[in-house]
Design a protein that fits this description.
The chain has 6 helices and 5 strands; from the N terminus they run βαβαβααβαβα. By secondary structure, it is α/β, with parallel strands linked by helices. Strands 2-1-3-4-5 form a 5-stranded parallel beta sheet, sandwiched between helices. The longest helix is centred in the last third of the chain and has 15 residues. The chain starts with a strand and ends with a helix.
Length: about 120
């Protein structure tokens, strides 16, 4: 399962589960609208194989989400792909501890191939 945590963005569809082609690629997708919602889903028992994390979100951004996620050992090893619009890619990737990064806007083909590559590298 993929957990997608994103704020409102024009770079990816707003209603992920209905629109994202990951479903047709064999992935089950769960969505969170911000970092706090993502943490709540983890605490409620969601255990995704991968988290696609937007860094800039309302309520709790991607950096705050990751810091809180690291406090719980069972979640700290879930691979993360970060998404962002601008800034130093390698610095943000290192700070979060992400496996990969995507600069927005993201094409669906790039999104799917990056998800596939990261999941193949960890499983």
């Amino acid at each position: 399962m993929l957990l997608i945590i994103k704020g409102h963005s024009k770079s990816l569809p707003r209603t992920y589960p209905e629109n994202i082609p990951c479903i047709t690629s064999g992935y089950v997708v769960s969505c969170a609208v911000n970092g706090q919602d993502g943490l709540d889903q983890l605490k409620d028992g969601e255990f995704p194989d991968l988290i696609l994390l937007d860094l800039m979100m309302p309520i709790k951004d991607g950096f705050a989400f990751r810091e809180e996620m690291k406090l719980e050992p069972k979640y700290s090893s879930i691979p993360i792909i970060i998404m962002f619009a601008n800034g130093d890619t390698e610095q943000k990737k290192a700070k979060i501890g992400a496996k990969e990064y995507l600069k927005k806007p993201v094409s669906i083909d790039t999104l799917i191939s990056t998800i596939d590559r990261v999941l193949q590298s960890v499983f």
